[in-house]
Inverse folding.
């Protein structure tokens, strides 16, 4: 397909998968119960979303959104953010080196290069309005969630900082004034055990209610390290949430919530999968994994521990001229782990310790309302954010030990406004703007040690370790003689993201829209890796301008909904994580010139009698247009993603049988850049090296069969995920330049059963 044809595609994309119970849970906090399947002449249900920070029908929102309600999350077995991304178009995920507690997301080809705290995310994650600055702990279980929305394209006006690719907007169920709850337990292969308990407690009639949620997920390892005699890629996670709702007056509501996530899991399944005889170092030959292997040869198999605490307080006041909302939040993240990146006993790049300890506070004020006989809908607000992080990776390589501690100190202040005005009947004009100032601080303490005469994987004796010179001394920057400390001056970035657009309401139930959005991702400091001043040069912000047109249609008495969108985005100073082939090898963030990404997305849901069908398609064509990566592949982008699903209910005298089947497919993905940056300039990877950082196209088949008794609120379900047992890479190592490489192996076929009881 030519560029002209691509850019001519018209449309709007949005899912139609939220059922009425999800909408009710979002607006009233009702305990969701199994919803009756959509059938009969009424057609598909209305979908309520908050993509514009207020409740609207999805058909009325000029934004590309995929939304999932409680029923759809259940039957698609979406229990974490990773599974959520597998069910929406134009999204790819990359596992992190340390486990399934967090992940890297790319929407429409835009992704961060890693999870270090000196680099911000390209996709913002919001839970009840709380922004997750760090990805650690973000792949949480979606327990007791009312709805989950995937917003595609820049969202910098209403959602704020670092949503250059899009945003995940998740809303949890709130307490209500009826006693109720549910219990669910499940068991599957790999000794998988899951349990969820929810109870809703009315405390004071129509005034005060509480809601308690607990979830547990565990399974044995998806891989095995026979040398160390331990599992690899296991899971043992717990999650609790306690929330309170107080209706102090008819016009004043207070929602308070606390949640805590903790997990202890062995490292992911790293295996050495790429080795080129004659070019790769011969010492790696004995450790090359067989095709399809789930055997780890790693010299260490550490346990990664995560602890996350979230506090959120939302006050909603109905004023004579609008609704005032205050969102106050605190988040604390602690992660301690390690990983053997090459999957061999050799000390190529063993991260012996990786500690991330951080906290964030934020305050947002929103005032929204309608004026001029409801022809003008408007939202204004202000936002404050402060984050402090300590990150210490202790890395062992054959000739050195590096203990590179960085302490980012990040602040952000912004004010924003957005309004939609009905110019003519059915024709609206929307404009929004946000003024942002980000301030970044940093403290470096990069202790380095040289290891001599001890090139083995065992811990070297003290006699073999000698301190390396502090790089800041030679640069005249060392602030602590006898130690190693450097605190550069703070840097600031001032940006004004904005959006403008038109939308037209079609006769019946349809919408056409066109818009332009300007977004950004803030700049920052490098991680502590280099030995010269050049390696500590800050990187600048990344900006994007995105054009989008779309349509949303409801046909055949609302039994078919179709949406599609096309977009064209241009990036300036695009941020890329570059592996610099220097001595030592350094990973740095580079502003790598310009890039263009264009594409289209399509989604449709249809009712054929009682059969419900859904399909989606995402097409992306990215390219670097200037800079050191010009002409090379853009990493973490699947150019084609598609999914299909079918749901069919069968009613019997004793109960209802629900059948569900879905298949999600994505094309090739390069996990890293296909160009290496050297002192002599960029060098293209060889075909073998390119293949070592690429995952070929694959698809995942999932199914669920459930039986709900009519006489009692009990549901029994049989489920299966990755039923064809696809073997795929969820991440690549960074050793392609040495003509060998490693991967993190994705999850195998899993299956089991669950029983749930609602009361």
């Amino acid at each position: 397909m030519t560029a002209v044809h691509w850019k001519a595609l018209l449309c709007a994309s949005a899912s139609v998968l939220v059922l009425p119970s999800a909408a009710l849970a979002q607006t009233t906090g009702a305990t969701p119960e199994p919803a009756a399947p959509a059938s009969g002449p009424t057609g598909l249900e209305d979908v309520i979303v908050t993509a514009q920070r207020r409740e609207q029908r999805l058909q009325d929102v000029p934004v590309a959104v995929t939304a999932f309600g409680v029923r759809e999350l259940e039957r698609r077995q979406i229990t974490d953010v990773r599974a959520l991304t597998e069910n929406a178009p134009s999204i790819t995920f990359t596992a992190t080196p340390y486990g399934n507690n967090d992940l890297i997301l790319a929407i429409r080809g835009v992704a961060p290069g890693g999870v270090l705290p000196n680099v911000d995310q390209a996709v913002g994650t919001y839970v009840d309005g709380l922004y997750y600055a760090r990805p650690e702990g973000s792949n949480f279980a979606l327990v007791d969630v009312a709805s989950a929305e995937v917003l595609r394209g820049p969202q910098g006006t209403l959602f704020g900082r670092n949503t250059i690719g899009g945003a995940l907007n998740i809303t949890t169920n709130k307490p209500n004034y009826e006693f109720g709850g549910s219990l669910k337990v499940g068991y599957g292969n790999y000794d998988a055990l899951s349990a969820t308990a929810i109870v809703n407690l009315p405390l004071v009639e129509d005034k005060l209610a509480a809601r308690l949620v607990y979830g547990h997920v565990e399974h044995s390892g998806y891989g095995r390290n026979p040398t160390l005699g331990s599992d690899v890629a296991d899971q043992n996670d717990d999650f609790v949430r306690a929330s309170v709702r107080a209706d102090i007056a008819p016009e004043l509501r207070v929602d308070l919530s606390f949640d805590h996530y903790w997990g202890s899991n062995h490292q992911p399944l790293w295996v050495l999968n790429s080795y080129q005889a004659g070019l790769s170092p011969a010492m790696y030959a004995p450790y090359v994994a067989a095709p399809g292997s789930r055997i780890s040869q790693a010299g260490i198999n550490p346990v990664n521990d995560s602890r996350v605490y979230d506090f959120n307080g939302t006050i909603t006041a109905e004023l004579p001229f609008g609704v005032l909302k205050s969102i106050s939040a605190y988040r604390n993240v602690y992660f301690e782990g390690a990983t053997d990146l090459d999957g061999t006993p050799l000390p190529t790049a063993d991260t012996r310790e990786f500690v991330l300890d951080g906290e964030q506070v934020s305050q947002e004020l929103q005032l929204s309302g309608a004026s001029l006989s409801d022809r003008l809908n408007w939202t204004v607000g202000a936002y404050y954010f402060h984050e402090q992080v300590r990150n210490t990776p202790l890395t062992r390589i054959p000739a050195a030990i590096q203990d590179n501690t960085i302490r980012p100190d990040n602040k952000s202040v912004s004010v924003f406004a957005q309004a939609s005005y009905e110019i003519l009947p059915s024709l609206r004009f929307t404009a929004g703007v946000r003024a942002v100032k980000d301030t970044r601080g940093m403290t470096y303490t990069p202790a380095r040690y040289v290891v001599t005469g001890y090139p083995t994987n065992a811990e070297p004796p003290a006699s073999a370790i000698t301190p390396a010179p502090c790089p800041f001394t030679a640069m005249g920057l060392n602030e602590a003689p006898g130690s190693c400390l450097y605190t550069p001056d703070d840097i600031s970035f001032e940006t004004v993201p904005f959006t403008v657009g038109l939308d037209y309401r079609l006769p019946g139930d349809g919408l056409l829209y066109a818009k332009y959005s300007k977004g950004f991702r803030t700049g920052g400091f490098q991680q502590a890796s280099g030995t010269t001043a050049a390696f500590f040069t800050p990187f600048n912000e990344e900006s994007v301008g995105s054009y989008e047109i779309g349509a949303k249609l409801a046909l055949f008495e609302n039994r078919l909904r179709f949406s599609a969108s096309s977009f064209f985005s241009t990036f300036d100073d695009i941020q890329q994580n570059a592996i610099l082939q220097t001595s030592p090898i350094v990973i740095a963030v580079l502003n790598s010139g310009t890039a263009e990404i264009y594409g289209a997305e399509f989604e449709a849901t249809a009712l054929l009698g009682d059969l419900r069908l859904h399909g989606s398609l995402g097409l992306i064509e990215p390219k670097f247009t200037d800079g050191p990566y010009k002409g090379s592949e853009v990493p973490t982008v699947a150019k084609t993603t598609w999914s299909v699903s079918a749901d069919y209910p069968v009613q019997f005298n004793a109960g209802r049988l629900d059948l569900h089947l879905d298949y999600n497919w994505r094309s090739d993905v390069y996990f890293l850049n296909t160009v290496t940056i050297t002192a002599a300039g960029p060098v293209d990877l060889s075909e073998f090296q390119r293949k070592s950082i690429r995952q070929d196209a694959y698809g995942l088949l999932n199914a669920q069969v459930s039986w709900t008794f009519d006489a009692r609120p009990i549901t029994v379900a049989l489920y299966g995920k990755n039923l064809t047992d696809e073997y795929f890479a969820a991440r690549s190592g960074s050793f392609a330049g040495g003509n060998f490489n490693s991967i993190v192996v994705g999850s195998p076929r899993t299956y089991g059963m669950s029983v749930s009881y609602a009361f």
